[in-house]
Write a structure and sequence with these properties.
Helix 6 runs parallel beside helix 14 and helix 7 crosses helix 8. Helix 7 links the parallel strand 8 and strand 9. With 559 residues, the chain is α/β, with parallel strands linked by helices.
Length: 559
């Protein structure tokens, strides 16, 4: 079946919207009950009833008090290219016992031209109960968006938040490198992790495919296998290296490295630290430097960090320096990272001082080895000299919390507000189509997010406003906002000609995330016992929630 483009001829403000990054994201990426409900709506003649759904989460992840919203772009790409092929429709028919052919005809005509999506900007700091997206449209179509939207947003927001937490604990000055492709949950987990870790504040990825797809900077060096694959210096056949300016040539780079190693051994500050180094490791370093003289960075813990790896690295780095190149630094992948990084820095500084090599002491020290938020925090408390952290497994798998728990709830149908009740008050939904505002205080920090009914007048700067907890009668406060920001913006308006928001480049989303986190009050951000951020409703919406609650809840009878 030929691909059908929706919306403004498949375009957004004149720009074609490509399909989702993962081609498996189709209308069949769905729970069966979405199709059974769509069929039941259709049988009841309700399929075109105008509905409003909110997508939100109930609790911040990782024991924190903030979340980073991510995944919106992929949702819009899914909407823009939504259609079911004949083969997919045949499969749906076979999966629904007794399905009428007329329903298949209905599915063939489905698109998202009558859907509207209002969302908080991707990369924003968000909080529980606040709708990340409001989806409006025919109830059967919106129902078919639920599972794909939740799938595209749950993990994206979770891993972006995990990345942001690692950035917070590492500090602004450290390089953060995402090294998780090999441990991620499958190819999509790896690609998504790279994208959303970058959004959450990481600087680069080792994932080449993600670098190509999203323009994320790539970083990487070599493994222990490369080092141990060498047996001796005799394996290096081509020993020639031209100087960085191209004006001279070193005919025997190995000899130059060996001279530099002797100079290090004779250095007054370093005598007694090492004697003979592992020559196969030295051969590996020399070979790698000959391949990458402008970006030489070596893994130094294959045999012994201080007695072999660091002296060998420094000998190669000094030889490169004599030819006008600057070595980048080293990576530590095992051992006591706080102690070793400190000793390595001392070694570098001693060479800079004794051999008079400018900036040698400033070379980058990268640490990896199953790092997570807690270990980085522990390193900070111990004191270390690490400049860059390569973080993989615990980052991309979100080992500390498996899922965010976003939900998709009906809040209005045919202009009638609806509510979902529960004995667990945290699971009670907030009914009706809403507008959401972020109120800022005198110091410029966000104070509270407030939800109002769609037709209520917006909060005004300088005007006192009562903010109420949605369900707790005693929790309320007056706020006089110094700035008001409306959060929900239109990102998809089907076939209407009205303006909608452009999808932004990944770098802009990353910048938004970093800027908003920097603007949060410090007590909301701390790792231990952070202060909860206030999410509220207007007094009018509060009264309506509780009126509808009482109206919908059955009255018990005692005998």
């Amino acid at each position: 079946m030929e691909k059908k483009e929706n919306g403004l001829d498949g375009k957004q403000s004149g720009r074609v919207i490509n399909g989702p990054t993962n081609p498996m994201v189709t209308p069949l990426l769905n729970d069966l009950y979405q199709f059974t409900m769509a069929y039941a709506y259709w049988k009841a003649g309700k399929q075109s009833e105008r509905s409003v759904f909110d997508l939100y989460f109930r609790k911040n992840p990782f024991g924190g008090e903030y979340t980073i919203f991510a995944g919106l772009e992929e949702c819009i790409k899914f909407l823009a290219n939504f259609n079911l092929t004949d083969e997919e429709i045949d499969f749906v028919r076979d999966s629904l016992p007794g399905c009428e052919e007329a329903f298949c005809d209905y599915l063939r005509g489905l698109d998202c031209s009558d859907i509207e999506v209002y969302a908080i900007s991707e990369g924003s700091v968000v909080f529980p109960k606040v709708p990340l997206l409001r989806i409006e449209g025919p109830v059967a179509v919106v129902q078919l968006l639920e599972t794909p939207f939740l799938n595209l947003i749950n993990y994206a927001s979770l891993v972006a938040t995990n990345a942001a937490r690692h950035r917070f604990v590492a500090g602004k000055s450290k390089l953060l490198l995402e090294f998780g492709a090999r441990r991620a949950q499958g190819p999509d987990g790896a690609i998504s992790a790279s994208k959303y870790c970058y959004l959450g504040g990481f600087d680069a990825t080792s994932n080449v495919a993600a670098g190509r797809l999203f323009g994320i900077p790539l970083r990487g060096t070599h493994s222990h296998a490369f080092v141990s694959s060498f047996m001796s210096l005799d394996e290096i056949v081509d020993k020639v290296l031209r100087s960085s300016d191209g004006k001279s040539t070193c005919e025997d780079f190995i000899c130059l490295v060996q001279t530099c190693l002797t100079n290090i051994q004779n250095s007054s500050s370093l005598q007694g630290i090492f004697s003979e180094t592992n020559q196969s490791e030295l051969a590996a370093f020399i070979s790698y430097a000959l391949a990458f003289p402008n970006s030489f960075l070596a893994l130094v813990d294959t045999y012994d960090v201080m007695k072999s790896g660091i002296p060998n690295f420094c000998a190669v780095a000094l030889a490169l320096n004599e030819l006008g190149y600057k070595a980048v630094g080293i990576r530590l992948d095992s051992g006591d990272l706080a102690y070793l990084s400190t000793e390595v820095r001392k070694f570098f500084c001693a060479i800079e001082k004794d051999l008079k090599v400018p900036d040698f002491g400033k070379m980058i020290i990268t640490a990896s080895n199953d790092l997570n938020e807690e270990t980085v925090d522990a390193l900070n408390k111990q004191g270390h000299e690490v400049d860059a952290f390569g973080i993989g497994t615990n980052l991309v798998t979100c080992y500390a919390q498996a899922a965010l728990g976003c939900v998709f709830k009906l809040v209005e149908i045919n202009n009638q507000p609806r509510i979902k009740l529960s004995e667990d008050v945290t699971k009670v939904s907030i009914p009706c189509k809403k507008r959401i505002y972020r109120l800022f205080g005198k110091e410029g920090y966000p104070l509270v997010d407030i939800m109002t009914g769609e037709n209520e007048p917006p909060p005004k700067v300088g005007e006192r406003l009562l903010c109420r907890h949605p369900f707790n009668e005693s929790k309320r406060a007056y706020v006089v906002p110094q700035r008001v920001e409306e959060l929900l913006k239109c990102y998809w308006r089907g076939n209407a000609d009205e303006a909608r928001e452009e999808l932004e480049p990944l770098k802009e989303l990353r910048n938004r995330c970093i800027k908003q986190l920097e603007n949060m009050r410090p007590d909301h951000m701390r790792r231990l016992n952070p202060t909860p951020y206030k999410v509220s409703v207007s007094a009018k919406l509060y009264d309506f929630i509780h009126f509808l609650w009482l109206n919908e809840a059955p009255v018990g009878e005692l005998h």
